[in-house]
Amino acid sequence: MKKTLFFFLILMALAFTANAKNDVYPTNWWTGMKTNSVQLLIRSTENAFTSDNVRINYPGISILKTHQFSNKKYLAVDILIAPETLPGEIIIEVIQQGKKQKINWPIYKRRTGNGTEYAQGVNSADFIDLIMVDRFSNGDTTNDRIKGMRDQSLDRNQMYDRHGGDLQGVINNLDYLQGLGVTALWFTPIMENDMVNRTEHGYAITDHYKIDARYGGDEAYKKLSNNLHQRGMKLIFDAVYNHFGLYHFLEQDAPDNDWVHRWPEYTQTNYREQPLFDPYGAKSDQKKMSNGWFDKIMPDINQDNPYMANFLIQNCIWHVETFGIDGIRLDTYTYNDLNFANRCNAAIMNEFPKITIFGEIMVHGAANQAYFEQNTIDTSFKSNLPSVVDFQSLYYGIIPALTQPFGWTDGVNKLYYTLSSDFLSKNPMQKVLLLDNHDEPRFFSIVGENVEKQKMGFQWLLTCRGIPQLYYGSEVLVKGFKAPDGLVRSDFPGGWSTDTKNAFTGKGLTEDEKSTQDLVRKLANFRKTASAITTGKMMHYIPVEGLYVYFRYDEKQTIMCIMNTSETDKEIDFQKYNEITNGFNSAKNVVTDEVFSSLNKTTIPAMKMWILELNK
């Protein structure tokens, strides 16, 4: 009987070792990283760990400490990677009831070219295209549906179903994007989004270490990154610190109960940033803003939990190094714990000194926005976020400039006032400008489907200070509002083989669509070599009767931008601006090629914009 029991226990131990399935996060690391202290989160998907007794026998790798959670399927192992450590396959031994459970974990040689071939950053010389991969182009129909994933929808007639776009579709059309003048691509999140529905946008991540198979997985993303860098283009990663999807394993099988914010009953954020800096604000409002859930299907991450914080920071570094990321856009930035955000930003910039980080600061008011970025304001909290998506110049700038009658504080004066508030920011040239995005109505719809206003918007976008960002399809007048039909996320024309209209080739485009696309293409390619726009200074004049004039200039070049937002023609007296125009004798419209042989007086038609390169 004793012998039978003895052999049974041996067989059980062997079965435990043989059958146990373990995942390690991060899934790998590299030699030669500044971030050489790494916290491994080991997860067993089957059996509980009976202890936190862990050994690693690998030259240069030492264990600093271990931690076991209330959910015994998880272990945290802090390791230190010495500078002399060589790449290889590390064996992590977890001692369970006297038996060793072996887990393989690779460490690689890091990629070369940090700051030159990747992690280069984006700047005002770039032109970003924001693309929703599911809505751009279907380059591989075999991944339209993936067996076992919760969302099996595939219907282009339903705006909130999946449509089938993928990374191969983007790769197939890089010639178009580069020809348009685009230098950098930013995608809404493409990590695994294994939710029940509404997975087209990507913001309910369920696995931070997998690129969604419906987009082509890790290999397609690496292929795209390589293609971009071979062309001299850049890749921007959309990181989400604030929340993840309800079906993320860290929610469905949490290590402890405090990895997300828990409330006695469901509590949504109040979506109000003011309590974070309001001198009269209530602590309860502040707590609800930062700790309330964005949505019932998006648990709010507790960044005060050091293990959760490490998981996020290491994951962002991992993505940059794995896929050759050049810039990072941070989603829902205002809802994060801001001290954590500072720590995360610092860790990323320490590892990749030239990388660009810009946050989604969807607030109302220039001072409100500046609070969350590097600023000149004397406040107790100081953000280290280098840059932001500049919603102020959208909400209180170009939209009222082209949709409101001119007044003392209305119309184009709002644009003037908003840009005048740049003194609050340390890096206004790094602000990311936009006309629209996946959360905002298409600009063409906002301006009443007025083609000339859309063109004026693009001319402003591509000449104002900052980094211009296009939203896919707006160059061919794609229109739509968020509600009720969600057309703001329509498919790019020509991205599917059955499309009768093809914006990639021009087939089926109207004259208005072609002319708008041509304007974007010509101006975006012009600005590539226009030092006055990409690195020069800016000076603007107080608008008069709807006429707004600003200059971009340096020692090599002077560009005069004239925006007539009124309903009547306006006289332009170049001598009025002689502190800049003095010494110049002629000008050329860089969009139409019209030449002004003298700089005296002329007339600009109603609702028109000119971009003039001044010549001596």
UniProtKB/TrEMBL annotation:
<dbReference type="InterPro" id="IPR015171">
    <property type="entry name" value="Cyc-maltodext_N"/>
</dbReference>
<dbReference type="Pfam" id="PF09087">
    <property type="entry name" value="Cyc-maltodext_N"/>
</dbReference>
<protein>
    <submittedName>
        <fullName>Alpha-amylase</fullName>
    </submittedName>
</protein>
<feature type="domain" description="Glycosyl hydrolase family 13 catalytic">
    <location>
        <begin position="130"/>
        <end position="527"/>
    </location>
</feature>
<keyword id="KW-0326">Glycosidase</keyword>
<dbReference type="InterPro" id="IPR013783">
    <property type="entry name" value="Ig-like_fold"/>
</dbReference>
<dbReference type="InterPro" id="IPR013780">
    <property type="entry name" value="Glyco_hydro_b"/>
</dbReference>
<dbReference type="InterPro" id="IPR017853">
    <property type="entry name" value="GH"/>
</dbReference>
<dbReference type="InterPro" id="IPR006047">
    <property type="entry name" value="GH13_cat_dom"/>
</dbReference>
<dbReference type="InterPro" id="IPR014756">
    <property type="entry name" value="Ig_E-set"/>
</dbReference>
<keyword id="KW-0732">Signal</keyword>
<feature type="signal peptide">
    <location>
        <begin position="1"/>
        <end position="20"/>
    </location>
</feature>
<dbReference type="Pfam" id="PF00128">
    <property type="entry name" value="Alpha-amylase"/>
</dbReference>
<dbReference type="GO" id="GO:0016798">
    <property type="term" value="F:hydrolase activity, acting on glycosyl bonds"/>
</dbReference>
<keyword id="KW-0378">Hydrolase</keyword>
<dbReference type="GO" id="GO:0005975">
    <property type="term" value="P:carbohydrate metabolic process"/>
</dbReference>
